[in-house]
Amino acid sequence: MARASAAMIGAATIGATADAPAQEARMAFRAGRYDGQTAGLAPGYLQGNLAILPGDLALDFARYCQRNPKPCPLVGVSDSGDPMLRTLGADIDIRTDVPRYNVYRNGELADQPGDILDLWRDDFVAFVLGCSFSFEQALLDEGVPLRHIETGATVAVYVTDIATTPAGPFRGPMVVSMRPLVPADAIKAVEVTSRFPAAHGAPVHLGDPAAIGIADLSRPDWGDAPDIRAGEMPVFWACGVTPQVAIRAARPSICITHKPGSMLITDLASTQASNQPGRAPVVGADQGAAGGPG
Amino acid sequence: MARASAAMIGAATIGATADAPAQEARMAFRAGRYDGQTAGLAPGYLQGNLAILPGDLALDFARYCQRNPKPCPLVGVSDSGDPMLRTLGADIDIRTDVPRYNVYRNGELADQPGDILDLWRDDFVAFVLGCSFSFEQALLDEGVPLRHIETGATVAVYVTDIATTPAGPFRGPMVVSMRPLVPADAIKAVEVTSRFPAAHGAPVHLGDPAAIGIADLSRPDWGDAPDIRAGEMPVFWACGVTPQVAIRAARPSICITHKPGSMLITDLASTQASNQPGRAPVVGADQGAAGGPG
Question: Which residues of B touch A (CB under 8 A)?
C-alpha cells in the first residue's frame, strides 16, 4: 500500500495534527525532513506537477498548456524570476518546498537535488499543472474503485498516437494513464472526472487500446502492468507525463521538475481542480467532507 | 432588436446559406462587406474577444488570464508574429477577419480601422477570450429569459470593488455584466453557466449590489440602464471588459482589440466554451440542437 505508507511516514515525520497541513508538509520538505512521495499527505489539498523553464521558453510553454488543457491543466504560473508561488498559497518557495527535484539539461536527467537554491535564475518561470490525485479522490468518494490504489501499484501509463497541438519547440504524443473499470463505473467516472478540468478532466478514450495506438496493455511505458479483470474495460485519461515528454523533446538548456510522485502541495482545496471549487478543508474535518456539508 | 437586425443584415450581406457560415462571415469582414455587430451571425459558432499585444507583454498577459479565468477565459493564443489563429479555425487571419478594430496607443483609443494589415508586427501575440454569447444561448435554450435581448438593449456592465489578481502591469477591478432573474431562473442560470468555464462560467455574485461595490444599479458603467422587475434579483457574471480595463491600466505602447460588439467568429462550436464540448453545428440544423440531439 504505497499511499498508506507515504501517509504514515508523513504523519510521523511532518506532524499530522498541524493547523495548516499543506504548509507544515512544505516546511518538512524545506527543512529536508522528508523527501518521499506526497500521495496521502495533507489530504484535501491540491497537489500539482511542477515544470520550471527559462524565460525564453515560458511563453511557448504557456501556449502549449493553453492548447492542450487535458494533459496540461495550468493551475499556477509564477512571475518571472519570483520563486514564491503567490497564487497557490502562503509562503510557497518553489526552490525548496518540493520533496525532491529532477534537473534536466538538454532534455537529459542530470541531477535529483533536494532543493534548487543554487540553480534558481532571475528569468525562471515556474508552472504548476493539476494532477490526477484530485479526481482519484473524487472517484473514491463516489464509490468508484481504483485497482492500482487497492493493490499498491503505480498506475499504468502509455504513449498514444494522439498528437498534441504544438507550441514553439513543445510537441509530442499525448500520454495517458489507464484505470480498468466495469462499464457502470466507467460511466460514473466520466461524469465525475468531467467536473475536474484542472485535474485532466473527462477521459480521452475508453475501450479498444489500439484505437489510440496502444499495442499491448500489459506493457505500459511507465508504471506497473495493470490488473484488468473480467467485465472491465480500460479507461484512459490524459496524463501529466505528456508535458514532460514535450519538454524533453524541446531539449531546453535547463528544466527543473518535481521528482515523479513527489509533488508540490498547494494551499488550495483539492476541489479547486473542479468546476465546483470548494474551500480548503477545515483541519480535523472528515476528508470526504472537504467540499462542504453534503 | 439589435441582435435580430444584426442577424438580418448579416444574412443579407454575407449569405446565410453558406456551407461554412463562420468562414463566410469572416470572408465578408475581410472583404470589407460588413463591419457591424456579430451577435446573431453564424449561430452555433464560438465568438471571442480579441486582444493583440506586443511580445514583451504577452507572457504577463497570459499569466493575467491564467490567474483570472472567470473574466479572462483564454480560448486561443497565436504564435508570436503569426497572424493566423491556427487553433481556432481554418484560414483565420486576425489582421483582417474581425469586422472592425480598436487600436489603443498608451492606453488611449487612437483609431478604429477595418483591418490592421499595416500595423501587424512580428512580435505581436493575439489572445482570444471567450465571451458571454455562448452562455446566453445556453440560457435561452434552457428557457431562462434574458431581458436585454428581449428589449433590444445592451447588457448593463459595472465596475466592482473585487480586485483581480495582478500579473506584471496588468491589474484592476473585476468588471461584471448583470442580468435580472427571478430566483428560480437565477438558480437555473448558475447550473447552466457553471458548465461554460470558457464563457465566464458561473456568476460571481447575486443579490445585493453594494456587496461588490456597485452603488447604483440604474447607472451602469457601460450598456443600458437595466429593467429590473418585481420579484427579480440582479445576477452578476465576470465580464470581458475586465481585461480591457487591465490593458488600459498597463498603457502598452500599442494594443489592438475588436471594436466592442464586433467579435471574432471562430470555427469552433459555441459549446466548446462548456465542459461538455460538442462539434461545430451542421449547416441547416436547428440552432438549439448544436450540442447534439438531446
Answer: 55, 58-59, 62-63, 66-67, 74, 76-77, 79-80, 87, 125, 165, 167-168, 194-195, 197, 201-202, 275-276
Interatomic CA distance for residues B224 and B41, integer angstroms: 22
Q: Tell me, yes or no, whether B157 and B197 share the same domain.
A: yes
Whether pLDDT at B5 is above 80? no
* Residue/partner pairs of A216-223 with CB below 8 Å, 24 or more apart: A217/A156, A217/A158, A217/A178, A220/A156, A220/A157, A220/A158, A220/A178, A221/A157, A221/A158, A221/A159, A221/A175, A222/A154, A222/A156, A222/A157, A223/A148, A223/A153, A223/A154, A223/A155, A223/A156, A223/A157, A223/A177
Q: Are residues A128 and A26 in the same domain?
A: yes
- ipTM confidence: 0.83
Query: pLDDT, tens digit, for every residue of B239-279?
Result: 999 999 999 999 999 999 999 889 999 999 988 877 666 66
Secondary structure element (H or E) that encloses residue A117, with its range? none
- Residues spanned by the domain of B179: 134-238
Q: In terms of domains, do B122 and B264 share one?
A: yes
Q: What are B194-220's pLDDT values in tens digits?
A: 888 889 999 999 999 999 999 999 999
